[in-house]
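Contributing: when you submit paired examples, paste them exactly as shown. First protein:
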Amino acid sequence: MSELQRTVTVVYNRKGKKLLSEREFINALFFELKWADTSGAGRIEAKEAQRILEAALRQGLLELSDGYVKPAFDIKSVEVPLNYKPTKDLLKELDEGGPAPAASSPSSGQEKSKVEAPPVFSVLIDDIAAKSGWNKRDVVSRINKVVEKLSVDAEVAALLIGKDVGVDVGKYLLEVKEEVLRK
């Protein structure tokens, strides 16, 4: 069993769902998992989370359909320690990943391009950090506090904080609305 497979399993176990949007998957990695080896940043960055998603799709561990991903294996059969944290070796595993699954249809090319777009949430975090002068960890912490206080989705909380610090959030409203409605 690969570390990538364990990491995918942890995401679905923590979310308690069998189907996640691409953004939910990336956000779960970004917000809920940290690297075990904390030399440098302990948190998984958005770009690394995107790479993990792409590798899991490429290696056939996840199936993509209409912007949603689901495991292509039985996650109940994977044993993962209770406080599992992936190691940075996972990134090396991603680079050595196997070829893309053989089944390719005309729509799979369109789905692939959707995976490559950065999630609006990570773009919002970058914009808030740039406008406020806070580091990304502080931005995420503030978003989490708003999520807990107001019981809203993380994307909505990011819009509220962005508005407070002077980010032009109007350009994100449609994407955030679509993301929230898909949940």
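Second protein:
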Amino acid sequence: MGETRILPSADVDERARIGGGTTVWHLAQVREDAVLGADCVIGRGAYVGPGVRLGDGVKLQNHALVYEPAVLEDGVFIGPAAVLTNDPYPRSLDVDGALKRPGDWEALGVTVREGASVGARAVVVAGRTVGRFALVGAGAVVTRDVPDFALVVGVPARRIGWVGRAGEPLDKADGRDAGAAQDGPRWRCPRTGEEYIESGGRLSPA
């Protein structure tokens, strides 16, 4: 674990906690009470809202916006200009015409589970969960929870396949192990050879 590095033009609140080996690049903003784990990379112009929690090894690419109270687990990747929102019914003014303040609404954060990736310019709407090692395609709009290992694209985002821990689309495996007749389709990672079993619309390691 290396030293924490905060570039001079970054705006990091003194109440934020930054883990060892983490780099915060130019013009990024990390708000009060945010917690960043070890060995994270916060790209140029990225935003981390108050109380947001990042695990170890998280990468926020340039101009990614992560609004409170989002939780990003270890190894999460957020692509350039992606947005994790926090208000399902946004308004500037309340019904009386007054400017809304933080106390006038309840922030609903996004959760991104271990190893998942959100592509460039994708949007994840308030309160949704992106499952472990899932992959959200560039420009997608996530309006419902994404299962573990799912590959989702489009507006609204829909699953078009599965990915493994390496992030590459899985191929159908040839045959099944003995005694596995009750299992669903089997999938194999073309890079690592790891196999997965699909059952009930979910995927899990074999």
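If you have annotations for the second protein, write them as plain sentences, like these:
The longest strand covers residues 158-162.
The chain has a mean pLDDT of 94.
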